[in-house]
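[Q] Does anyone have a clean structure-token version of this?
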Amino acid sequence: MNERDSEAVAAMLRVRGYRIVADEAACDILLLNTCSVRDAAEQKAIGKAGYLAQRKKKQPDFILGILGCMAQNRGATLLDQLPDLDLIVGTQKFHQVPDYLDNLRAARDAGVPIGETIVDIAEEAGSQNTIKDHIAPEADEERQVSAFVSIQQGCNMDCAFCIVPKTRGDERSRPMDDIVRECEQLAVRGVREVTLLGQIVTSYGRRDYAHTGGVTPFVQLLEKVHAIEGIERIRFTSPHPRGFKDDLVAAYGRLPKLCGYVHLPMQSGSDRILRAMNRPYTRDRYREIVAALRAVQPEMYFSTDVIVGFPGETDEDFAQTRELFEACDFDMAYVFKYSIRTGTPAAALADQVPDEVKEHRNQVLLEVLQKNSLRHTARMVGTVADVLVEGRDKSGERFTGRTRGNRVCVFEADPRLIGQLVPLKIERASVSTLYGELQLAGVES
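[A] Here you go.
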């Protein structure tokens, strides 16, 4: 979501005549879009901003701003550590950045001291509708094949460990027709895959649209995007287990463009810890969702989020988490050691788990995951997978794309194949990457 917000701001700035440069040493305006999910992310951003602020000694006209979740969480108190900031803009004010920069530059060009830092972290009705612009590739750039589309902002879940409701605000959805129009415009530009984004993406429109024939607004949106000519693949993130009703499970069987890949945050496999986390589902319900999805699509790929060492987590609680983690046979997972997040209910809980215990539990799950991933990728060697060619890999010598199950593939190809779905014979595999050779008989190049 931060990537999508950053791209939208960059697109708005480019329309105003600003040029986006690849090297931060070459810029005269630098904006840090920040994360607050963990305190370590904030500390990293503060360190980076402090380093950048030193440029003002040699380059007085250099403009430095902090955007996003940390700006929203800390506001003007950031100036206690970073007094040289010119701009602090929260998560509902991204669209105001161009105007603020124009004002700062006008004052600078007129020789007027910039004065007080601009701080704007106010809520704004309708702000979810402003994340809609995309950067069009320049003439010498490769075409954009995949795009993020923001459909919903904010969260009403109040998980005990999470600060997102504070940094992103209450749940707010964009109009369905606006989202469909954005996807149509992306398709015209050559985008073939869209990923629908929201804090709780499966809650989309639940207060704005009626359930029709047992179909939730989110699935109604999936149906409309599925009907767009040119869009070949649809993904979404991040959902909540409670959003996987019968209609969404069934959608994986009747919407061919909906990729058979689900990121399904588990957080814990212990009912007792799930209650403490304020996660409204049980381990049995989670297992039922996984089984239902695999029944509809046997080759479904799963990733998840897990927190180990939540306050009060016992050896038995962790054993239940490990058992569920192994039973679900995840292809990929983000495993986090719980860390105190000031401003969340869990921060005040007693019975904090020692760091060495958290580290051990973290390593146990990572070892399980590595074995799973190696087994899953090894199973694909010798098979042929449909891969969407996205562009060159980091080396610039080969090309990369992803399978429907979200596995990264590396292969040799012709640039003319960018944006096409091609068959790739998998020849070897690592934990997270597949390597293969295109099978181009009958494929237009």
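[Q] Thanks! Anything notable?
[A] The chain has 13 helices and 17 strands.
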